[in-house]
Design goal:
Blueprint: H1 10-20, E1 28-33, E2 50-53, E3 57-62, H2 72-77, E4 80-86, E5 98-101, E6 117-122, E7 128-136, E8 141-148, H3 157-171, E9 175-181, H4 185-193, E10 202-205
Parallel strand pairs: 1-3, 8-9
Antiparallel strand pairs: 2-3, 2-10, 4-9, 4-10, 5-6, 6-7, 7-8
Helix pairs in contact: 3-4
Length: about 210
């Protein structure tokens, strides 16, 4: 049975062409030289190996001159796989968060590296409850990262913040993406409920490398 063809937004296609070195990927398994893989990412760090496995093909981008061996399939088999999602129709049931500077002293340390404004929901007592940071990879794709204080889990805050943030990303002209481990069922549930379906796309990265594009 042939895989269903997925229409990819132009912004996402441009981003993937840079991130992997080619888009759409050729049939089979490919390892492609992508200059951006040798450049600092959204956080100023190098993320040299990153690719996608779709129902149609697999392609992984590496820096020019990167040693991968003669067998692309063997190289790809040694990579870590996770879930890659994107949305053009997020579910915005409520807007519980406020956009505030990431350096606001009320916020937990994990939000600071995102810079710019982050989306935060506060509890009734004024304390931090949940937040979203944006990994602004380029003008075309901003990846959503969400975290909820353990005292406020189970209230649907993550789902609502992700939907609200995704709508904001789209309004800014970019495509929101969302990545998580395959066994992170809580994150999968949040993503699906916020309008990020499982299209069968998986990101691929080195075992000792962050999972960012």
């Amino acid at each position: 049975m042939l895989a269903e063809t997925v229409t990819v937004p132009d912004q996402l296609a441009r981003h993937l062409a840079r991130a992997i070195g080619v888009w759409p990927p050729p049939a089979g398994v490919s390892v492609v030289e992508a200059p951006v893989r040798g450049e600092p990412g959204w956080d100023g760090e190098l993320h040299p190996v990153w690719g996608l496995r779709t129902p149609e093909a697999t392609a992984v981008g590496v820096p020019p001159g990167w040693e991968t061996g003669p067998d692309p399939e063997a190289f790809v088999a040694g990579l870590v796989e996770g879930m890659f999602r994107w949305s053009t129709e997020p579910v915005v049931a409520a807007e519980p968060g406020l956009w505030i500077p990431a350096e606001d002293p009320r916020l937990p340390p994990w939000l600071v590296p995102f810079g710019g404004d982050v989306l935060v929901a506060f509890a009734e007592d004024g304390g931090y409850a949940a937040g979203v940071g944006l990994k602004r990879h380029d003008d075309d794709v901003w990846e959503i990262a969400v975290g909820t204080d353990e005292r406020h889990r189970g209230k649907g805050l993550a789902r609502k913040l992700v939907g609200q943030a995704a709508a904001g990303v789209l309004a800014a002209g970019a495509v929101p993406t969302y990545q998580h481990d395959l066994d992170n069922h809580a994150s999968a549930k949040v993503a699906a409920a916020a309008g990020f379906p499982d299209r069968g796309w998986r990101f691929l990265t080195a075992a000792d490398s962050p999972e960012d594009v």
